[in-house]
Amino acid sequence: MSVAELKAQVFGETSAEAVTWSYIQNVRTGLYLAVSGSSDANGAPILQWEKRTGNQEQAWTFTETSYPAGYMAIRNAGTSSWKAMGISRSGLHDGAPAIQWDYRPGLEDQIWGFYGGTLGVYRLQNLNSGKCLAIPGSNPARGVHAVQWECSSNLDQAWAVTSWP
Questions:
Q1: Distance between CA atoms of 39 and 146, rounded to whole angstroms?
Q2: I want to staple 151 with a disulfide (CB 3.0 to 4.6 A). Which of 74, 75, 127, 132 is the partner?
């Protein structure tokens, strides 16, 4: 799905040029993806936290890539350069942590496929590893680090994309 199609489905937008910020909420835990401590550092963990309206560490935008339809970079508003969500050290194993890093177009661990889309719920699959973004064991605690895991139908891998703030 293209950026324009995702924006049109979620927000009713048709312009690919418009920057739209979104929350990304885990369906199972009800918590939202955030950059730990609003850090600007490369390698800062991506974790789940309760919704904090207007907090830029929870604001994400989607950058279209040159890869197949449905793949995008997921970038955070809490940094001046809109760092991208990726997998630490381009890990290929289950449990590799999600982090933020300077956006590098074409870096496959920063590219995510959006699958599903039923009622705005997606599975986010990493292009490099083929694994899906998850909250381990559906842990409902604040501060749990998002990781990649073998893709499944578990709701700990289901993410709702909603308008920010």
A1: 16
A2: 132
The 3-state DSSP composition of the chain as helix, strand, coil percent (nearest 5) reads 15, 35, 45
Q: Which two tokens stand for residue 120?
A: 């705005």
The residue to which tokens 């956006």 are assigned: 103
Task: Find the length of the chain.
Answer: 165
pLDDT at residue 119, as a whole number: 84
User: Going along the chain, which residue ranges are E strands?
Assistant: 22-26, 32-35, 46-49, 60-64, 71-76, 84-87, 98-101, 111-118, 121-126, 132-134, 147-149, 159-163
Q: What is the pLDDT of residues 13-49, one digit of tens each?
A: 444 456 889 999 999 999 999 999 989 999 999 999 9
Does residue 8 register a pLDDT over 90?
no
Question: In a 3-state reduction of DSSP, which class is residue 49?
Answer: strand
Rounded alpha-carbon distances, angstroms, from residue 162 to 13, 37, 59, 103:
13, 22, 10, 23
What value does the CA radius of gyration of the chain take, rounded to a whole number of Å? 14
- Tell me the HSE value of 142 on the side-chain side, using a 13 A CA sphere: 6
pTM for the predicted model, two decimal places: 0.88
Q: What is the separation, in whole angstroms, between the first and last Cα of the chain?
A: 23
**What are the backbone angles phi and psi of residue 101, rounded to the nearest 5°?**
-155, 160
